[in-house]
User: Which sequence fits this backbone?
């Protein structure tokens, strides 16, 4: 489930399960509504992608204006496809135009209000977390490596360890990313999945010499293994490669692409 929102040319995705909470601001941006050109057209918010830095900065200004957040309140990940998650506070914010204050972190979480969590995506799965009882939010970048290493489960464990959260209370949304048909890998990667967890075969299809895994359903399975209720997990069902006109896609654009953002804040 998802909702496509539009403010003039700026388009972004929200999730019905998160929209029920008045104190939560969230979105997943698309490639629409910015100023970048070529393969970065148009809402590229990724500095270091090869795009004009001035265009990216302007895109960030447009994005923050449209969804009514302050760029100085953003804490962004420093993604290297790990399963590392980190608790963040105000001390880490305000570095969006430079570099994060930490490295090798693909998931961030907080109990602080008005602190904007942000992850970067161009095929990898964004996973949004909210515990409305303990008032904790989290946001993860779950590529296939992060999914294999169960970054979603690591986030749930962190919620429990740091805030004594009940997994049954946590709401999760799995955002736009590669669908099963588009997540195509060779046998070596397939073997990594099956070695990690034999149950992953239930989410695998073989087409010729290629293997296709359903990363959405694997993340759902891993979340439920940690106690998240099935009815509390929402999957957008949007594929970034199939919908390359709406989203940037690393695979669809052969690596020459911009980046979209997952955004999550608790008021």
Assistant:
């Amino acid at each position: 489930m998802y909702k496509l929102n539009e403010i003039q040319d700026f388009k972004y995705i929200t999730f019905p399960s998160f929209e029920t909470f008045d104190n939560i601001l969230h979105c997943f941006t698309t490639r629409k509504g910015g100023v970048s050109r070529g393969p970065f057209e148009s809402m590229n918010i990724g500095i270091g992608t090869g795009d004009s830095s001035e265009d990216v900065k302007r895109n960030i200004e447009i994005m923050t204006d449209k969804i009514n957040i302050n760029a100085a309140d953003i804490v962004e990940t420093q993604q290297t496809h790990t399963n590392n998650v980190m608790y963040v506070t105000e001390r880490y914010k305000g570095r969006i135009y430079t570099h994060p204050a930490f490295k090798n972190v693909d998931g961030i979480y907080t109990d602080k209000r008005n602190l904007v969590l942000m992850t970067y995506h161009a095929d990898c799965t964004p996973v949004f977390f909210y515990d409305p009882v303990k008032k904790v939010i989290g946001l993860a970048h779950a590529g296939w490596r992060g999914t294999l290493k169960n970054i979603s489960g690591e986030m749930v464990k962190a919620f429990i360890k740091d805030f004594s959260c009940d997994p049954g209370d946590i709401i999760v949304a799995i955002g736009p990313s590669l669908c099963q048909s588009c997540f195509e890998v060779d046998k070596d990667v397939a073997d990594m999945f099956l070695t990690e967890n034999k149950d992953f075969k239930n989410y695998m299809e073989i087409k010729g010499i290629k293997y296709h895994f359903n990363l959405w359903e694997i993340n759902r399975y891993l979340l439920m293994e940690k106690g998240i209720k099935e009815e509390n997990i929402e999957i957008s069902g949007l594929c970034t490669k199939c919908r390359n006109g709406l989203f940037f896609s690393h695979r669809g654009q052969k690596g020459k692409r911009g980046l979209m953002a997952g955004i999550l804040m608790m008021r």
In short: The domain at 3-177+233-266 is CATH 3.60.140.10 (CNF1/YfiH-like putative cysteine hydrolases). The longest helix spans residues 53-67. The longest strand covers residues 125-131.
